[in-house]
UniProtKB/TrEMBL annotation:
<dbReference type="GO" id="GO:0006777">
    <property type="term" value="P:Mo-molybdopterin cofactor biosynthetic process"/>
</dbReference>
<dbReference type="Pfam" id="PF02597">
    <property type="entry name" value="ThiS"/>
</dbReference>
<dbReference type="InterPro" id="IPR003749">
    <property type="entry name" value="ThiS/MoaD-like"/>
</dbReference>
<dbReference type="InterPro" id="IPR016155">
    <property type="entry name" value="Mopterin_synth/thiamin_S_b"/>
</dbReference>
<dbReference type="Pfam" id="PF02391">
    <property type="entry name" value="MoaE"/>
</dbReference>
<protein>
    <submittedName>
        <fullName>Molybdopterin synthase sulfur carrier subunit</fullName>
    </submittedName>
</protein>
<dbReference type="InterPro" id="IPR012675">
    <property type="entry name" value="Beta-grasp_dom_sf"/>
</dbReference>
<dbReference type="InterPro" id="IPR003448">
    <property type="entry name" value="Mopterin_biosynth_MoaE"/>
</dbReference>
<dbReference type="InterPro" id="IPR036563">
    <property type="entry name" value="MoaE_sf"/>
</dbReference>
């Protein structure tokens, strides 16, 4: 059967392409495909996570013809909105706190909480020249929508704004904006904190940093089963 394999961050650079079509045995699982890629293309996929059709999957997940299998290195900590109370977007455009504010401030929401993450320099004693951010955008936006739903399960009625930047960003430029509005202060603050910590692990975004040591991938976290 034939499947489509896609690659991100260091894997894409090592392979020299973003995707390829593979013929694999009927009934193959994710681990078998990873082993085949190792044999045929020399890719070391140990420690990588996998998504099948934009959903995280276990190595023993059985594949079907036509599946998209995305191989994701551990993640470094525009689509339609998920609903009138949620805005989720991965974009190469500059992020705007005022746009988040316009979306979140409503008469029924007495509290707004915000987190803005920017490129830091120096980092670990090195002056950072820039960071290239790479994302699996369709899956990242899906993860954002799921995170907003989880935040509502924990903290009740919320408006949620989630945007992540891609491309080359210089120090002090915003890479992520998280905003939460709620009728009450405590829910907004706690939901914003939950989203920060959840997305740091779950969001398929990678950082390629250039600093005084040269260029390198920023070490990430594998929040799901790996190969």
């Amino acid at each position: 059967m034939r499947i489509r394999a896609v690659f991100f961050a260091r894997l894409r650079r090592e392979l020299g392409m973003e995707e390829l079509t593979l013929d694999v045995p009927d009934g193959a699982d994710v681990r078998a495909v990873a082993e085949q890629l190792g044999r045929e293309h020399g890719l070391n996929l140990r420690g990588c996570m996998v998504a099948v059709n934009e959903t995280y999957a276990r190595p023993e997940h059985l594949l079907q013809a036509g599946d998209e299998v995305a191989f994701l290195p551990p993640v470094a900590g525009g689509a339609p909105d998920a609903g009138e109370d949620t805005h989720c977007r991965v974009t190469a455009d500059a992020l705007s706190l005022s746009a988040a504010d316009a979306f979140l401030v409503r008469p029924e929401c007495g509290a707004q909480a915000y987190f803005v993450g920017t490129v830091r320099s120096p980092n670990q004693g090195q002056v950072v020249e820039y960071i290239d951010y790479e994302a699996f955008a369709p899956m990242a936006e899906k993860v954002m929508r799921e995170a907003a739903a989880l935040a509502r399960e924990r903290h009740g009625e919320l408006r949620v704004w989630l945007e992540h930047r891609t491309g080359r960003l210089a120090p002090a430029v915003a890479s992520i904006v998280i905003g939460v509005a709620s009728p009450h202060r405590r829910a907004a603050l706690e939901a914003c904190d939950f989203l920060i910590e959840h997305l740091k692990i779950e969001l398929p975004v990678w950082k390629h940093e250039v600093d005084g040591r040269g260029e390198h991938w920023v070490p990430g976290t594998a929040g799901h089963d790996t190969l």
